[in-house]
Hints:
The chain has a four-stranded antiparallel β-sheet. The chain has a two-stranded antiparallel ribbon with strand order 5-6. The protein is of the alpha+beta class. It has three domains: 10-58, no CATH class; 75-145, no CATH class; 159-197, no CATH class. The chain has helices at residues 43-47, 56-69, 75-88, 112-119, 147-151, 169-176, 180-188, 193-197, and strands spanning 10-11, 14-19, 28-33, 38-42, 127-130, 142-145, 159-162, 165-168. The protein is built from eight helices and eight strands, in the order ββββααααββαββααα.
Amino acid sequence: xxxxxxxxxxxxxxxxxxxxxxxxxxxxxxxxxxxxxxxxxxxxxxxxxxxxxxxxxxxxxxxxxxxxxxxxxxxxxxxxxxxxxxxxxxxxxxxxxxxxxxxxxxxxxxxxxxxxxxxxxxxxxxxxxxxxxxxxxxxxxxxxxxxxxxxxxxxxxxxxxxxxxxxxxxxxxxxxxxxxxxxxxxxxxxxxxxxxxxxxx
Length: 201
């Protein structure tokens, strides 16, 4: 069986130098990468384009992605990174509240460039917030929210309905000009909702 001689041919960043030790039943070639490292690659991987460098291309591409947008280290980038950690990293203490209960990130936002394109730069004193606290991280369900908005939009927020209007405990406190703790004390003591809030029907 005649073997195709790839010596001297270029494949991406690799130049075939000589035939190398076979990998199982496959012919492999010693290749020199443009970065200077040597790499052993099978004929099939070279010809179908599966391998085009010693691995340095992936490193360079990753580095370029970080430097191209120039956002690494900014608050916007940190918000994106924190989002990923909460949903994807099981070792993080907040994972049970997010990824652990099924909160996911849309595939588009696994790329910071796409996330930044959809959400823009993080405004001062704002945080990344899901409008539906049981929904996923995706363009239609996220906003840059104030601390108060996010505090009022957690799964732990106590919601009270009075006169057909539903608000969180903090929102009612702001609305009636009372302290949140005072209203909570009255409710826990068994006061009627209207009396607890200090409103009349």
